Amino acid sequence: MLHTSNFLYQLHCRFGSSTLHPHYSCMSYNTATGSWSSKQLQSRLGNLRSRRSEFRVTCWQVLDSTKTCRVQEVDKDGDSDESNLFPHVQTLRNFPIEKIYGEVVIVRFDSTLLLEALDSNNFSLDKSLFTIKYLFNAGAKVLLVSNWGRPGDPMLLSVESLADRLSSLLQVKVVPANDVSGLMQSKMNKWENVDILLLDNLTKFREEVANCSKFSEKLSSGATIFVNDAFSLSHKILASTVGVTRFCHASVAGFNFEEELLQLKKISKTTRQPYLAIIGGSNFLEKANALHLLAYKCDGLYFFGKLAFQIMNALGLSVPGCFVEQDAVGEALKLIQHAHRRKISIYFPNDFWCFNNSKQDLREIFPSGGILTGWTPIDLGPVSLKELSSLLSICKKILLIGSIKFDSVKEDTVGASELALMLQKISMTDCDVTVVGNAACNAVAGTSCSITQYRMFKNASVVWEFLKGRILPGVAALDIAYPHDLDWNIAFPDPSKPLIVDIGSGNGLFLLKMARRWQNYNFLGLEINKKLVRRCLNNVLQSNIKNGYFISTNATSTFRSIVSSYPGYLILVTIQCPNPDFNREEHRWRMVQRMLIEAIVDLLITNGKVFLQSDIEAVARRMKEQFIMYGKGRLVVDGDKNMGWREENPFGIRSDWEQHVIDRGAPMFRIMLRKVR
């Protein structure tokens, strides 16, 4: 038996010594008083945010000087749910480049960037191409998958034609693969002579939109790493964006995906004021939740198109019956009440250009509440455009989302062109402009010499889903990274001490006992259950333990990003009795996976150790085999030449589950591994 004193004494011997202006008169509803008035955004800016100091408690940190718990303010803008909507995902930028060499990497790219934006100055296209070039230069075998066109389209671009276009852009030969049904054999045959392979058009396969598990497995066969670079499809559940992540040991965001995700997050940021949202289109009921979020974030909402008529109808103004959406009046009133509580203004046009339904070449200007029967609005009137220009001129942040044309008009309108010119002018000043939707992006691009000054999202569906508070499946499917920069000086008085990490630390009793007994080491518990972590941190505080700390996280994907920043040496990692139901080979969320093992082996100091144990032999054996396999010769069984199970716990301290198993007379299956290089 290796007693605790002997075991940690050996560790100590080895590691211990290396230790808005008054003249504006835009038509608006004064939500503060319930009456009509001329509104200015600037008059409210001093106190609008004073009540918005809410923040979400995400972790507890122990302050040694005061012996009190400190909560970390993560979001001072009140974005309490943003981390749930946008988990901090692993990115290709932060993925160890040495882990890419020789691997087959499947890349889901956005073909529309190639087919609709061949301009070499296109920022998104450049980022997407850079993802492919980066992987190619890192020595990966790159497998490209995408969809383009519509099924049955006789003009559908062939896979050979798209491969030629990619080859021209990348300056590297891209080889097409026509047969997805024989995908595995096709890959094996072609990888011998090529480095980049383009699979057939996914539009042809119904299994893609059904997120068919068998099709996902076939699609990713042979690949070990998945890179999603098609952010425009994040709102969909597809085999090529969600399903394949089950069969790859690492799933990360490409450079374009990462950039688009970052830009989308900025829509909800309120650091620049006044912030005005200009909202067009229709379907008020469908967008109600999103509109409420915008009312919370923005300093004003300007509606046009069919949405404006729902607000006008709710306020009792005369609106042509054909423009009233059924059952929308209740939601419109709720939005007005929400704006009233927040003391922000809701704006809509003062006048419209309209055409006569009988003589469509006959056009006249009507005030907002005075459109006569038989006339249909087709464009913003001159007064509305003038007042909108004045309103925009004082804004520091603008969101244009939705169609900027009326449903009854197919061609571009004067109002749309004028608005695009206004945005171009203001974007050249100190104002952030975000444009969402294909029509809006095209209108803005048509009047601008350069679109780099805008944030642009052609696929409005992704943005609307985010604004509705829904999790984007394409984002959630990627591996999660730890979202915060750790201050190890807060976690431990001396972060240079050797570190021992317990993965799946549970109630923390094992780690706390170890920390009490061995104060020359720092002990870190990683546990996915937030309630247990809070309880453990309270125990640390109450017990005045200074060398113990706990973090709520999924260590399987975040271990590297957390432990790599630790100033001292990592000398020991323990994994004890993982839940067997979550550690079956086919279970996607099993704890012991290749990415975790590689991170542990990379970060362990030479002669550092890994202790594994379980009361279920199959689980213990699988953990042992996986560590040996993915350790790639850097791990050996320590202290037992027969490579059998250890009869005794080497620490002299048992976890509560281990004690429970022993008390009932059942065996424990233990093994110690040591890093040799």
Describe it for me?
The protein has three domains: 85-263, Phosphoglycerate kinase, N-terminal domain (Rossmann fold, 3-Layer(aba) Sandwich), CATH 3.40.50.1260; 270-458, Phosphoglycerate kinase, N-terminal domain (Rossmann fold); 496-675, Vaccinia Virus protein VP39 (Rossmann fold, 3-Layer(aba) Sandwich), CATH 3.40.50.150. 35% of the residues lie in helices and 20% in strands. An eight-stranded mixed β-sheet has the order 2-1-13-12-11-17-18-19, sandwiched between helices. Helix 14 (414-427) packs across helix 15 (438-447) and helix 21 runs parallel beside helix 22 (594-603).
Concise structural overview:
Monomer. The chain is built from 24 helices and 26 strands.
Secondary structure layout plus pairing:
Blueprint: H1 4-16, E1 27-30, E2 35-38, E3 57-63, E4 68-73, H2 82-85, E5 104-109, H3 112-116, H4 123-137, E6 141-145, H5 159-170, E7 175-177, H6 183-190, E8 196-199, H7 206-209, H8 213-219, E9 225-229, E10 250-253, H9 255-267, E11 275-279, H10 284-297, E12 300-303, H11 306-314, H12 328-342, E13 345-347, E14 351-356, E15 363-367, E16 375-380, H13 382-392, E17 397-401, H14 414-427, E18 432-436, H15 438-447, E19 454-457, H16 460-467, H17 473-476, H18 488-491, E20 499-503, H19 509-517, E21 522-527, H20 530-543, E22 548-552, H21 555-563, E23 570-576, H22 594-603, E24 604-614, H23 617-631, E25 635-637, H24 656-663, E26 669-675
Parallel strand pairs: 5-6, 5-9, 6-8, 7-8, 9-10, 11-12, 11-17, 12-13, 17-18, 18-19, 20-21, 20-23, 21-22, 23-24
Antiparallel strand pairs: 1-2, 1-13, 3-4, 14-15, 14-16, 24-26, 25-26
